[in-house]
Specification:
There is one protein chain. By secondary structure, the chain is α/β, with parallel strands linked by helices. Helices cover 35% and strands 24% of the residues. It has helices at residues 44-51, 74-83, 91-94, 101-112, 118-131, 137-140, 150-162, 180-195, 207-213, 231-236, 241-248, 286-290, and strands at 2-12, 17-28, 33-37, 59-64, 67-68, 84-87, 168-172, 199-204, 216-221, 224-230, 295-299, 302-305. The strands form two sheets. An eight-stranded mixed sheet has the order 6-7-8-3-9-10-12-11, sandwiched between helices. The mean pLDDT is 91.
């Protein structure tokens, strides 16, 4: 469906170079949901935006339909934009609050000329609003974003993407701002879209969310892909210390429960050539400071970048 090859995205500041995405490769297959997990600042959002050609990389490729998306010409790029959508974390920043819900959803339809008449446009909008649970659509379509709750507005953002019938969606922390009580219903919207043929890259810092919705999980740390595999492999048998710490941090309703793996709190800088987790890793060895680990297959389909293996 869409493939990332050796992607590097670096940002320069006055005193240093930030390796937001550092030599990352991954694939999302047709009709698949995969998750990219990691704490804030790990490069998840940058990776997602770069996959949709919203950020230009230092090097590497993103292949869609066997074409490098960074070399698409004007007409091909417009087709790519319609078929590959993004849903941002904060719908209040991603949606123009001066527009009614109807016009927010209709914007893409009009831009790409998907409706032959006003009646067809209205039918498409009402159908997608019902699909995301905004009923009756006649009432929600004339509302302004400021009249909606956070959960309702996130559904509008999802509707805006789904109405274009995309092949691929990057969902950037789509439930992080929502109450726990409605998170499952939002995630179920993505599951239903996937059942209709849409592939999804779910970006989240919550590995429990990733486990709920995805078939494979990719773990990022400081822009580096440190582990990936099938969801049950990552959740039941995490190998990388960072992945183990992410899973250990999931709240367990058991008195006296303590984290099995906890990363060190330190101000020590990352090594220039070694493992990026070296300053925080409780299992670090001298080689970790000197040499960056490569991804190795520890079981079929399960890869880890760690000198412990």
């Amino acid at each position: 469906m869409i493939e990332v090859k050796n992607l590097k995205v670096y940002f320069k500041t006055k005193n240093l170079i930030i390796k937001a995405v550092n030599n990352v490769s991954l694939k999302v297959q047709n009709k698949e949901i995969v998750s990219v997990v990691g704490e804030s600042g790990s490069g998840k959002t940058t990776l997602g935006k770069t996959m949709l050609a919203l950020i230009k990389p230092l090097s590497g490729e993103v292949l869609w339909d066997n074409k490098n998306v960074f070399k698409l010409k004007r007409r091909e790029l417009k087709v790519f934009r319609r078929k590959n959508q993004i849903i941002y974390q904060d719908p209040f920043d991603a949606i123009d609050v001066r527009m009614k819900v109807y016009d927010v959803v209709a914007e893409g339809i009009r831009l790409h000329g998907l409706a032959k008449s006003r009646e067809e446009e209205k039918k498409m909008i009402y159908e997608v609003l019902e699909e995301v649970g905004l009923t009756p659509p006649e009432e929600f379509s004339v509302s302004y974003p400021t009249q909606l709750s956070g959960g309702q507005l996130q559904r509008v953002a999802i509707a805006r993407a789904l109405v274009l019938n995309p092949e691929f969606i990057v969902a950037d922390e789509p439930v992080s701002m929502l109450d726990v009580s409605i998170r499952a219903s939002i995630l179920d919207l993505f599951t239903k879209a996937n059942e209709k043929g849409t592939s999804i890259l779910m970006i989240t810092h919550d590995i429990a969310t990733a486990a709920y919705i995805s078939s494979r999980i990719f773990v990022l740390y400081h822009g580096n892909l440190v582990e990936y595999g099938k969801t049950d492999q990552i959740i039941e048998n995490p190998r990388h210390p960072y992945t183990q710490a992410l899973i250990a941090a999931i709240p367990i309703p058991e008195p006296g429960y303590t984290l099995q793996v906890k990363l060190n709190d330190t101000e020590e800088p990352d090594p220039l050539n070694g493992c990026p987790l070296y300053p925080r890793c409780p299992f670090r060895k001298d080689i970790c400071r000197k040499e960056e680990p490569k991804l190795v297959e520890v079981e079929p389909g399960h890869y880890v970048a760690c000198h412990l293996y």
